[in-house]
Automatic annotation (TrEMBL):
Record Pfam families: DUF484
Gene source species: Rhodospira trueperi
Species lineage: Bacteria, Pseudomonadati, Pseudomonadota, Alphaproteobacteria, Rhodospirillales
Protein name: DUF484 family protein
Signal peptide start-end: none
């Protein structure tokens, strides 16, 4: 991790006393000794430009319309260092957030797989994904069309055509900054929803389409500008699990 920090020149002087050019540690640090060190190390300020921030530069007589170039250089250096610190802090913060999201997504996928093994995928999505993905409501829903596998029937609350309306094939992820919760999608938690993220599911094998839906009580929690790759990844895993439900339920289906 890189962070550019201001270091008082006192720390530099303390370090300087340990340099090879000061053989006798008992020798007091004088202006001549500092000058000698800087003379022997002309690149010091290149390596440690923040030292300039702690120096008092000598004044100079200036008439009207005369600008001291040293003031300009110091101000520019201060601005560059401030921008560097701010940029570094922002990068570190963004990296931490991204790592946290990635870790939570991985945990969500493992939880989904475990829920499917137990035959409780719908409950797992509703109960566990809310905590893991930091949302207020999560739901797994399908259209009530055709012949549904037994495990899908309790989750088939959407009318035919609903999925195409909110998350068509050409845009399978819908991130809505402003949304009114639909009871057919979020059930009893619909009243909490002010922003939602919908991922289209197409299990195939004769199964109707569905949605993995996440709802948040804060408007703007989701927006079209946000990346959707992690949500898409979770949705593909859920879709894979649901696809297995259709095997063996239809005449001539494998396994």
């Amino acid at each position: 991790m890189f962070r550019l920090e201001r270091r008082p020149l006192g720390l530099f002087w303390e370090q300087a006393t340990r340099e090879s050019w000061l053989n006798d540690n008992s020798t007091p640090l004088t202006d001549d000794a500092v000058l000698a060190y800087l003379t022997e190390n002309p690149a010091f300020l290149d390596r440690r430009p923040e030292a300039l921030l702690h120096l008092v530069l000598p004044g100079s007589a200036r008439g009207d319309g005369v600008v001291d170039i040293r003031d300009f250089v110091v101000r520019r250096l201060k601005d560059e260092l401030r921008e560097m610190r701010d940029g570094t802090d922002a990068l570190i913060q963004t990296t931490r957030i991204n790592m946290s999201l990635l870790n939570r997504t991985h945990q969500a996928v493992l939880t989904v797989l475990q829920g499917d093994e137990k035959g409780t995928l719908g409950e797992t999505v509703a109960d566990d994904l809310t905590l893991l993905l930091d949302v207020d409501v999560a739901a797994l829903r399908f259209e009530n069309a055709g012949r549904l596998p037994a495990r899908s029937a309790p989750l088939a609350t959407l009318p035919e055509g609903y999925v195409d309306m909110v998350a068509p094939r050409e845009r399978p992820i819908a991130l809505r900054a402003q949304a009114k919760g639909d009871e057919r999608l979020f059930g009893g938690g619909a009243g909490l929803v002010a922003s939602d993220a919908l991922a289209r599911l197409e299990p195939g094998n004769g199964h109707p389409p569905g949605l993995l839906a996440l709802g948040d009580r804060h408007p703007g929690a989701f927006s079209e500008e946000q990346a959707s790759d992690l949500l898409s990844f979770v949705a593909r895993v859920v879709e894979h699990c649901v696809r297995q439900w259709t095997f063996g339920d239809r005449p001539g289906a494998p396994g």
